[in-house]
Amino acid sequence: MRASLIGATGLIGGHLLELLLQDDYFEQVRILIRRPLDLAHPKLEKKLVDFSDPESFRLALEDSEAIFCTIGTTQKKVKGDPEAYRQVDYAIAVQAARFGKETGCEKFILVSAVGANSKSRNFYLRLKGETEEAVQASGIPEVYILRPSLLLGNRKEFRFGEKLAGWLMRPVSFILPAKYRPVKALDVAKQMIQAAKQKEN
After folding, report:
1. Which fold does the domain 2-151+183-197 belong to in CATH?
2. pLDDT exceeds cutoff 60 at 168
């Protein structure tokens, strides 16, 4: 399978990229990145993409049989600008699905968030819900959506709130409903691989 990955430099994306490169099921792994990445592998293809340029974005996804999308930002990165947040979490994912459909992609695997709901009063959960609905409406034959709770793992950037929540939730996670328990980013990446390998009935 020829796979494309958007979000390779993030917590889940980093694990996912490593797994894809190790797995012989995937003959080619293409990553769409905004900045150069110092990484080499025989089956890795790197595409520098301007996500605000539709033609550049679409061309980078051609010949993809599966698209993995782990893209996401934070309020800190966008300086609290909701429109800038939407341009990353919503626009990139939705355009990827639409371009994937246009170029013949069969599978789209998206990381969302637990509690995602397009009717939520919470901006983040509403945005994630709207993204899910738009991706599902893209027309790609198979869409898989993962909704992890708090992610556990070592990020390149330090997020105090996330670290604090992880420390506080771990001792009591056993009493939480399964979908709200903290989950290892590596486990989410493994589930994405499994989704891509599923055969449609």
Report:
1. Rossmann fold (3.40.50)
2. no
Statement: residue 103 has pLDDT above 60: yes
Burial of 141 (0-12, 13-18, 19+ CB in 10 A): exposed
Domain boundaries, the chain: 2-151+183-197
User: How far is 21 from 100, CA to CA, in rounded Å?
Assistant: 21
pTM over 0.90: no
